[in-house]
């Protein structure tokens, strides 16, 4: 069970702390415990209820009406269809609440409904990624349950794979070739999977090698596949002090093409990279870049 301060609840729900206190005092919405120093601490059930209540209030319902509902009634109301497909905050809150409750059917239904309303790519950009950012805040606060995070990550991975598999095949002849992989010991795959989907959806040919790929194994692959672009995501690997050496090794594999480094380790201050490297800060920057890239060889 998580233990959240009121500032944690404010960050995760988007509801101001003074509003949370008012709802708690006036309607008994939450039931915090108090520490020996009289600080309120909230549990997963409190956060889940607050997220669901915020979702319903965001749809125009009065807090006085919502507060009279029990948890099951609130959950059913949240899962009811919302006509505003672009109410991203509502969808993120509903998904986060379902994750906290380990409610896999609700997670699937909410993701499928968002995809139906928005299309898969917009669902990922406007719903899934903000949700993952919220989860990152929970990690920083030390309130994230690993099982909850694994459940959501596994479902998102399934959705990306299914969406990619549904795309038409791409002919490698006459089409730019992209080789996607994660460094050795790197296991955080969602961003790379989505990049692979986005490239395939734009008619690019990709070879996806996935997690934990030693760089020494890439030489033979590059000789055979002859990629125009290498793409990798650096979340936890390699070690921060070894990113420069890793980049130089990739440059040797693809000296005339492009190399995309995505992730926080690629954006560290003072990192010097070869001229053929691209470091998009955000996924939207990557999507813009792939629509504008000129595949003429880059000077070494």
From TrEMBL:
Q: Which domain of life is it from?
A: Bacteria
Task: Please indicate if the UniProt record lists Flavoprotein as a keyword.
Answer: no
Q: What is this protein called?
A: MerR family transcriptional regulator
Q: Does the keyword Ligase apply?
A: no
A Pfam family name for this chain? B12-binding_2
Give start and end of each HTH merR-type domain. 3-72
Which UniProt keywords are present, listed alphabetically? DNA-binding, Transcription, Transcription regulation
The record ties this protein, via InterPro entries, to: Cbl-bd_cap, Cobalamin-bd_sf, DNA-bd_dom_put_sf, MerR-type_HTH_dom, MerR_fam, Meth_synthase_dom
